[in-house]
Design goal:
alpha+beta, 616 residues, 5-stranded antiparallel sheet, rod-shaped, 5 domains, Beta-Lactamase
């Protein structure tokens, strides 16, 4: 299991580094000072013993007899804890003065100690005597030889250098020239060591106090030094989130101050750049979203990244078909990229809908970054083009037939092919063709006028009066053809263009009378439904085949073309009816059964809110 690294703040890191430096420096300084002081103090004590020993021997040089010398030594004042011993040249003990022993039963030895047989190994006596600590216990034969050679030596006897486990400071100097005896002057280093220990404690306490004060100063300094860095770090985090406010609270004129100025300048530059990018993005989004064409953005692999609303509308139907249509479009785009690449235009058929697809790449420095595909719905334009061609073909055909007949009969009359007695009949036939041609031209003019017509002349109409006028208009025709006409009364008012609404009824009623045989019935019903009126025109005529029902409102579409031409129909009446109804904000549909009859149902709002312009 990996150990999780702890994230230390820069102020803590800086404080810890400063503390480590302070502790190392002060610790090293403390150790060095205490070691040097201890060594210096011990050396100073040894030098004092050596000087004191020399002073004593200098006093003894002027005295010729040992009696005088021993008397002088007995009168010599020694400091506490200091011992003086005189040895002969063979190492025998001549005299001992003072005590360095820690034993309470042998505090001092004074006077002459006879018997040159005493040596550094001890003193013969009864077994109850405790052997006092003597300097000869630390004085070796090698030391003896050095002193007898005329040298004054100092000895720092450490516990590890002797078997007594006791430290001792000794100065040894020869008496006389040549040496007649050896004077040893020594003391225990305990007082020195106590002074050194006291000094070390003072140094330790001073060091601890210095570390404590340095800790506080370092903490304050670390916080002051890291404060600008923390402020800049927070400012950089704000900039990363889009907040480009200037950094405040740092007024230094050093490199930190210059860095703050650079960051503020960079933040302002980024702010301006981001605002410009936001404006460009909003502009681009507005352009893309405002386009009527579908726009789809793809990545380098051909996956969909973005679609505008018209693109979403391509598959915004029920869930199943929407998923299939989206998948079909994505597959088509990927195939278009892999097969032909960018800059190509191809058509995609989605059922009855036809899309014109063009694609282009969005380049980057390291190659293609993605693609933009524009899908334009050309279904309406293709349909309009087809309708235009069909319209021109139908108009040409409808005009050519009567013109050829008129031309043929007139040429026949002119050339005398038709006898004089038959000419009136043929002239009547030519006149009928001329009337049919005039009706065709009128209906074409009506269609053209409706296409350019953008507003309705709305007025408040009394429905009961309107239906009564309609009944008067067709009652005589119904009696003439032996057809039963029923117009159900309705009360109320409606806002509409009276002339246009009357044209709707005339076109529908003319069709009903044309195809309803004698003895059958034509009925007009009206129903009031919330804010609209529903009109139903029912006849008991021949009916319309189911395969023709979806096309009857198309221009020039005729169910029975031979009969329609004979009756003078051009296939424009129902197209005009649909235009007028939809211009009022209504809808129209037809229901029919062959051999039973046909029913036209259309609705007109009482108060149209949105009046649709009539379009071709």
């Amino acid at each position: 299991m990996k150990s999780r690294k702890r994230n230390w703040r820069i102020s803590v890191k800086l404080w810890m580094a400063m503390m480590l430096l302070i502790v190392v420096v002060l610790g090293s300084l403390t150790i060095t000072i205490t070691w040097l002081f201890g060594d210096f103090y011990l050396n100073q004590k040894l030098n004092e013993l050596g000087n004191e020993a020399k002073d004593i021997t200098n006093q003894l040089k002027s005295q010729q007899s040992w009696a005088e010398r021993l008397s002088t030594l007995q009168n010599e004042k020694l400091s506490a804890g200091t011992q003086l011993i005189v040895l002969n040249c063979d190492g025998g003990l001549i005299t001992v003065k003072g005590s360095i022993s820690t034993a309470s039963d042998f505090s001092s030895i004074t006077g002459w100690r006879g018997g040159m047989g005493l040596s550094g190994t001890g003193m013969q006596g009864s077994s109850f005597w405790i052997h006092p600590l003597l300097l000869t216990d630390f004085f070796t034969q090698e030391n003896m030889q050095e002193v007898l050679s005329g040298q004054t030596i100092t000895i720092e006897a450490l516990p590890s250098a002797n078997k007594l486990g006791q430290a001792m400071l000794i100065a040894a100097t020869p008496i006389g020239k040549p040496a007649e005896a050896v004077l040893l002057l020594g003391s225990s280093p305990a007082p020195v060591q106590e002074s050194i220990s006291t000094f070390r404690r003072m140094i330790l306490y001073s060091t601890l106090l210095a570390v404590l004060l340095a800790t506080l100063v370092a903490l304050f300094f670390a916080r002051q030094v890291s404060r600008p860095v923390v402020i800049m770090q927070k400012a950089a985090s704000r900039m990363a989130k889009g907040d480009f406010q200037n950094i405040t609270g740092i007024n230094s004129r050093d490199e930190i101050g210059e860095l703050v100025g650079v960051l503020n300048s960079m933040g302002q530059s980024l702010k301006n750049h981001m605002e410009w990018l936001s404006q460009e993005r909003n502009l681009l989004e507005g352009i893309v979203e405002g386009m009527s064409d579908a726009v789809i953005m793809l990545d380098a692999e051909g996956q969909i990244l973005y679609t505008n609303e018209p693109a979403k509308a391509l598959w915004s139907e029920d869930e199943e078909s929407a998923s299939d249509r989206k998948k079909q479009i994505a597959t088509f785009l990927q195939e278009l990229l892999h097969s032909e690449g960018e800059g190509k235009i191809k058509n995609l058929s989605l059922g009855t809908q036809v899309l014109q697809v063009s694609i282009a790449s969005t380049s980057a420095r390291n190659g293609v970054e993605g693609y933009v595909a524009v899908l334009r719905d050309i279904t309406a334009s293709l349909r309009a083009e087809k309708e235009r061609r069909d319209f021109m073909a139908s108009v040409t055909h409808e005009l050519r037939t009567p013109l050829h007949l008129i031309q043929g009969y007139l040429e026949a009359i002119q050339d005398g092919v038709i006898p004089q007695k038959d000419q009136p009949e043929q002239i009547e036939f030519v006149l009928d063709e001329t009337r049919r041609l005039a009706k065709l031209v009128y209906e074409l003019q009506e269609v053209n006028r409706l296409e350019r017509w953008k507003t309705l002349e709305l007025q408040t109409m009394d429905l009961e009066e309107f239906m009564q006028d309609l009944k008067y208009r067709y009652q005589s025709l119904a009696e003439e053809k032996g057809i039963e006409l029923e117009i159900m009364p309705i009360q109320g008012e409606i806002t509409a263009d009276r002339d246009r609404l009357l044209q709707v009824f005339i076109n529908l009623m003319d069709n009903a009378f044309r195809y309803t045989p004698q003895g059958k019935r034509i009925r007009i019903d009206s129903k009031q439904e919330e804010n609209l009126i529903r009109f139903i025109i029912t006849d008991e005529g021949e009916g319309i085949p189911s395969q023709d029902l979806p096309h009857i409102f198309n221009r020039f579409y005729r169910v029975d073309k031979a009969r329609s031409r004979k009756d003078g129909g051009m296939g424009l009446g129902l197209a005009i009816v649909k235009q007028i109804v939809e211009a009022h904000g209504g809808k129209i549909k037809a229901e029919s059964q062959v051999g039973v009859g046909t029913q036209f149902i259309f609705t007109i709002p009482r108060q149209p809110e949105n009046i649709n312009p009539i379009e071709g």
